[in-house]
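Practice problem 4.
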């Protein structure tokens, strides 16, 4: 059996110059497949809202939904580090709320760390959660829970002022005690600068090659979401077409009386 990945394991990978792999997972079958493939981190992202539940964005996702999906993922994992996203308004209201909700999510889901969005503005929140021994993964740059404030899904950090703010956010997240940091949709040059400055690992999504690791949504990797895909996404297979063909073949056989056959039937 492969050695269990832990928070210290992830931090040590940066020191060795070893790239970190992270993918999203939302259920047991996918979690088991990804874990057996030796993915380092499985993120139960609030992206479940738009990818699985059909919400227009991540904002409607609840703590209960995150716990449900994370419990399913944990049941399929023996090696990977499992990280659960703290959904919108589960940590922004007060530090007490943030600690209580982080504790509830870890306790009830079986995850080993939480992820939350924000930099300087969330420094005290991160510090407070880390202080009760719950590992925190940060997330800056394009933060989907701030979609209305940002005016859509746009690359962040192109202007000098934005670039400076994102760097300040990165430093704040590290100083607050986070063990790693997701950089989403920022210029590769800025991601390189941040990755070289910080001692904690950076994990990029649309942030270029210089991050210490990469993350993608598993449905994007497998080509399950159709033709639309952001610039930073690479689909490694077109499972949407494969599934459609399999379903069409099944329906054809049922309608023509070709399925089930004797092979799939029981007798007295």
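Answer key:
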């Amino acid at each position: 059996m492969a050695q269990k990945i832990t928070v210290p394991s992830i931090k040590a990978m940066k020191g060795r110059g070893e790239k970190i792999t992270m993918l999203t997972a939302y259920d047991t079958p996918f979690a088991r497949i990804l874990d057996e493939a030796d993915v380092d981190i499985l993120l139960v992202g609030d992206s479940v809202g738009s990818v699985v539940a059909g919400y227009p964005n991540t904002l409607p996702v609840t703590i209960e939904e995150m716990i449900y999906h994370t419990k399913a993922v944990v049941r399929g994992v023996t090696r990977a580090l499992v990280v659960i996203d703290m959904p919108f308004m589960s940590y922004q209201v007060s530090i007490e709320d943030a600690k209580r909700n982080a504790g509830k999510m870890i306790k009830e889901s079986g995850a080993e760390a939480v992820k939350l969005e924000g930099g300087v503005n969330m420094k005290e929140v991160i510090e407070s959660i880390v202080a009760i021994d719950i590992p925190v993964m940060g997330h800056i740059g394009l933060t989907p829970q701030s979609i209305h404030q940002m005016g859509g899904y746009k690359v962040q950090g192109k202007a000098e002022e934005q670039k400076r703010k994102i760097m300040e956010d990165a430093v704040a997240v590290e100083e607050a005690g986070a063990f790693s940091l997701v950089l989403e949709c920022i210029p590769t040059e800025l991601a390189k600068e941040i990755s070289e400055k910080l001692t904690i690992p950076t994990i990029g999504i649309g942030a270029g090659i210089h991050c210490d690791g990469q993350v993608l949504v598993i449905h994007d990797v497998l080509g399950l979401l159709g033709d639309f895909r952001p610039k930073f996404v690479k689909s490694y297979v077109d499972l949407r077409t494969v599934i459609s063909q399999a379903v069409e073949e099944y329906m054809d056989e049922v309608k023509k009386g070709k399925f089930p056959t004797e092979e799939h039937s029981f007798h007295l």
